[in-house]
Amino acid sequence: MEQETTWQWRCDIEPDGTVVTLLGEIDMAGADHLRDVLRKAIAQATRVDVDLAQLTFIDSAVINTLVAAHKHAADLDVRLTLVNPTGHVRRVLAVTGILHTLGGTPSPPDPPA
């Protein structure tokens, strides 16, 4: 597991693709490093799933990074999909339309507070 100040990531190479698991909170300070992590995964696979189950915060810089990574993957004929978003991350991605655009399927809604 690699660690940044507020977030961590793990890349698991599987027979049918790579899973990039993101944990913690990513904001504009981590967006460039996230871009590098995703580009490396895209370069090594035909399918990349970005597992967001343990990601608790993203901002607009991260959304831009995810969209750019999706475009980069598509240009290389690699499928990049967001999976398992929850809480704040799911809401932000759903409201902005990014979840649907990047082929992700939303997790079940969080229970009311």
Descriptive overview:
Belongs to the anti-sigma-factor antagonist family. Residues 19-113 form the STAS domain. GO terms for molecular function: anti-sigma factor antagonist activity. There is one protein chain. By secondary structure, the protein is α/β, with parallel strands linked by helices. The chain has a domain at 32-102: 2-Layer Sandwich (Transcription Regulator spoIIAA). 41% of the residues lie in helices and 31% in strands. It contains four helices and five strands; from the N terminus they run βββαβαβαα. Strands 1-2-3-4-5 form a five-stranded mixed beta sheet. Strand 4 (47-57), helix 2 and strand 5 form a beta-alpha-beta unit. Helix 1 (28-43) packs parallel to helix 2. It is globular. The termini are far apart.
CATH architecture verdict of the domain at 32-102: 2-Layer Sandwich
For the report, how would you describe the main beta sheet? 5 strands, mixed
User: If strands are numbered along the chain, what order do they take across the biggest sheet?
Assistant: 1-2-3-4-5
What fraction, in percent, of the residue positions are helical?
A: 40-55%
CATH superfamily of the domain at 32-102: STAS domain
- Spell the H/E element sequence: EEEHEHEHH
CATH class of the domain at 32-102: Alpha Beta
Q: Let me know the number of strands.
A: 5
**CATH topology type of the domain at 32-102:** Transcription Regulator spoIIAA
pLDDT under 50 segments (min length 5)?
A: none
Using only C-alpha atoms, the radius of gyration works out to: 13 Å
**pLDDT average, as an integer?**
90
Structural class estimated from helices and strands: alpha/beta
| Strand residue content | 25-35%
Number of helical segments with 4 or more residues:
4
End-to-end separation: 32 Å
Overall 3D shape:
globular
Organism: Micromonospora sicca
Family: Belongs to the anti-sigma-factor antagonist family.
Protein name: Anti-sigma factor antagonist
Pfam family, one: STAS_2
